[in-house]
């Protein structure tokens, strides 16, 4: 497996989608502010890359050029009705997880729990989610 330090824009997009979904649903299960959450995601990503490549430093590790700056409010991408895409959010979460899961404590870390919750929220916002039957449908179209 390989890993790299992602750009702040990826994390800003994920946190921006979370902020958007919270305004749409009113549901929030996050313990941190968006900026704190963004920084926590960056920290786990960097931790993963440095664990995967122990011979590197933050300056020499593969990935984004903005690796040494802190995450701030200006890094959060503004997401609106026309720009929210739950499929893109799910793919972005998968990308960040892939780049952040190398260290031994990933499965128990707060960043993974945050992304798991965000993924569940995004799935519920997929088109046709509300119209789909709970359980198996009575009739299934034959091929």
Description:
With about 140 residues, the protein is an all-alpha fold. It has one domain. Helices cover about 45% and strands about 0% of the residues. The protein is built from four helices and no strands. The chain has helices spanning about 10-25, 35-50, 85-100, 110-125. α2 crosses α3 (about 85-100). The longest helix is centred in the N-terminal third of the chain and has 19 residues, at about 35-50. The relative contact order is 0.21. The model has no long low-confidence stretch (mean pLDDT about 90).
Key phrases:
143 residues; mainly alpha; 4 helices
Concise summary:
The chain has 143 residues and is mainly α. It is built from four helices and no strands.
List the helices and strands and how they pair.
Elements (H helix, E strand, L loop, with lengths): L7 H18 L8 H19 L33 H15 L9 H14 L20
Helix pairs in contact: 1-2, 1-3, 2-3, 3-4
Gap between N and C termini: 38 Å
- SSE pattern: HHHH
How many structural domains are formed by the residues? 1
Helical coverage, percent range: 40-55%
Class based on secondary structure composition and strand pairing: mainly alpha
The proportion of residues in beta strands is: under 5%
Q: What is the residue-averaged pLDDT?
A: 92
Instruction: Work out the number of β strands.
Output: 0
The number of helical runs is 4
3D shape = globular
Q: What's the story with the biggest beta sheet?
A: none
Stretches where pLDDT is under 50 for at least 5 consecutive residues are none
What Rg, in angstroms, do the CA atoms define?
A: 17 Å
């Amino acid at each position: 497996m390989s890993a790299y330090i992602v750009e702040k824009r990826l994390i800003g997009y994920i946190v921006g989608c979370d902020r958007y979904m919270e305004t749409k649903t009113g549901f929030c299960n996050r313990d941190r502010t968006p900026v704190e959450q963004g920084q926590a995601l960056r920290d786990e990503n960097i931790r993963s890359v440095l664990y995967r490549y122990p011979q590197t430093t933050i300056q020499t590790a593969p990935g984004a050029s903005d690796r040494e700056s802190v995450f701030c409010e200006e890094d959060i991408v503004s997401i609106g009705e026309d720009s929210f895409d739950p499929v893109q959010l799910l793919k972005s979460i998968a990308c960040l997880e892939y780049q952040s899961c190398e260290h031994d404590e990933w499965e128990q870390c707060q960043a993974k729990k945050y992304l798991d919750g965000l993924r569940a929220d995004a799935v519920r916002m997929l088109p046709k989610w509300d119209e789909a039957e709970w359980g198996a449908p009575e009739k299934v179209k034959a091929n």
